[in-house]
Amino acid sequence: MLSTSVVTFNSSFVDQVNALSHEQTQLCYHCHKCTAGCPVSAEMTYGPDRILRMIHLGQKDAVLASPDIWICLACETCGARCPNDIDIAHVMDALRQIARAEGVRPGQPRVALFHDIFVTVIRFTGQMHEATLLGLYKVLSGDLFSDLVVGGRLFLKGKIPVLPKISRPGNMLAQVFRKSK
Ligand code: SF4
Ligand code: SF4
């Protein structure tokens, strides 16, 4: 006798992701071309095409808690390969936004921490300042000693300026942050 399992279809999650990403994820027919070309799919738990399938099945909790949405590099290789023009980088970005807004614990806490520090530094200085970014990341992650040699070499070559250049208020980035609120 065949066993059956019931999958609950939660269409509101698909709608939420589509609205935020401006993509039509339901056009995916799971050809796997996105995952085959993704440079970090080997590090992911599911890979981009399975993430889309889980969205279609309404598996919201599993998708938002997965490390994949934080591992994605937003390189857009998947979008370039997709025969249906689905830009999964936009979908992954929407999933990160939903996860953050709904207080879901990140599947890759360090990547999420780096992401938050990156945005905070840009918000307050108007541009990236690597020394602040790296210093805050090292302290807040507790990972004080990895990559010290590489970081030291970059510093000695002047690639990590000590003082940030603060952009004037009213610059384009400040406007972006204001509008995104
Ligand atoms: S390449 Fe496009 S259609 Fe194919 S599995 Fe990926 S998202 Fe779906
Ligand atoms: S955008 Fe993300 S999911 Fe798509 S190929 Fe790049 S890393 Fe992979």
Structure characterization notes:
- The chain is an all-alpha fold and 181 residues long.
- 56% of the residues lie in helices and 0% in strands.
- Helix 1 (11-21) packs across helix 7 and helix 8 (109-125) runs antiparallel to helix 9.
- The longest helix has 17 residues, at 109-125.
- The structure holds iron/sulfur cluster (2 copies).
- One iron/sulfur cluster (SF4) is lined by residues 28-34, 49, 52, 81-84, 86, 88.
Summarize the structure.
By secondary structure, the protein is mostly helical.
Q: Keyphrases for this structure?
A:
globular, mainly alpha, 181 residues
Layout of helices and strands, plus pairs?
Elements: H1 11-21, H2 33-37, H3 48-56, H4 60-65, H5 68-71, H6 77-81, H7 88-101, H8 109-125, H9 130-141, H10 148-156, H11 172-180
Q: What is the count of DSSP helices, taking H or I runs of 4+ residues?
A: 11
The Rg value, from CA coordinates, equals 19 Å
| Helicity, as a percent range | 55-70%
Query: Which class do the helix and strand fractions yield?
Result: mainly alpha
Shape: globular
**In percent terms, what proportion of residues is strand?**
under 5%
**Mean of residue pLDDT values:** 87
- N-to-C span: 55 Å
Low-confidence stretches at least 5 residues in length (pLDDT < 50)? none
Ligand set: iron/sulfur cluster
